[in-house]
Amino acid sequence: MKDKAETVKSCYESQEDILNAIKELYCPEGFECDITYGNGVFWKNIGNPKHCFDIAPTADWIKKADSTNIPLDNDVLNNVVFDPPFLTYIKDGKDYKDGAMIMSRRFGGYYSYDQLEEHYEKSLEEMHRVLKNHGKIIFKCQDIIHNHKMHCTHCMVINMAEKIGLRLKDMFILVAKHRMSMPQANMPNFKQKHARIYHSYFLVFEKVRAKKLNTKITYF
To answer: Read out DSSP for 133-153?
Structure first.
């Protein structure tokens, strides 16, 4: 019988602990692919996956690729890890090409939440394409406040995934040990309107069907 102290939990304060928990339950042979490798923080103490991609590689052994156009054949992976940017903001008075800021650096972002949604959806479709049947996606995301509105990103991602044939298998919560300070909190007459977000999600999806469905499942 497994020792209670070693029981896999749904909530951790370390990304490494979450990845090890996911590996134990869903990826016993190890992680195969990271399509947003960045600086490789995920893999510092775990070891790199076989395939490492990034739109702006930080080393010559990382292959340059966009998460919406992965240079792999159909149905070849048992699992894939996706850690996209989650920040959204507007660059006033600056001309830009569509998607110019997406994944431009490890802590990149989007000009609007619509742009974030489009990138997440296209990336999910591409990950679905390269996965084998019953393959797993490990999708990191965070709910955000954008333009004074709460966006429940993890629910949006779950809806997108269900629509294209991905079943939610599990959900892990990463609780931040530290967060950057809020400069506006020191401004006169500042009034906080939303709870400060101190957590993010690691969603585990399984590929269960090849064709898209017309039914949309809503999670509250």
So the answer is: EEEEEEEEE--EEETTEEE-H
| Domain 8-180+193-207, CATH | 3.40.50.150
Q: How many CB atoms lie within 10 A of CB 120?
A: 23
**Domains of the chain by residue range:** 8-180+193-207
Indicate whether this model's pTM tops 0.85.
no
Nearest to 30 by CA among 75, 81, 86, 65: 81
pLDDT in tens, 59-84: 999 999 999 999 999 999 999 999 99
* pLDDT reading at 188 higher than 80: no
Say how many Å lie between the first and final Cα of the chain, rounded.
35
**123: number of CA atoms within 13 Å, CB side?**
29
DSSP per-residue string spanning 159-185: HHHHHTTEEEEEEEEEEPS-----GGG
Do the Cβ atoms of 173 and 11 come closer than 8 Å?
Answer: yes
Q: Please choose, from the candidates 123, 100, 115, 124, the residue with its C-alpha nearest in 3D space to the C-alpha of residue 151.
A: 115
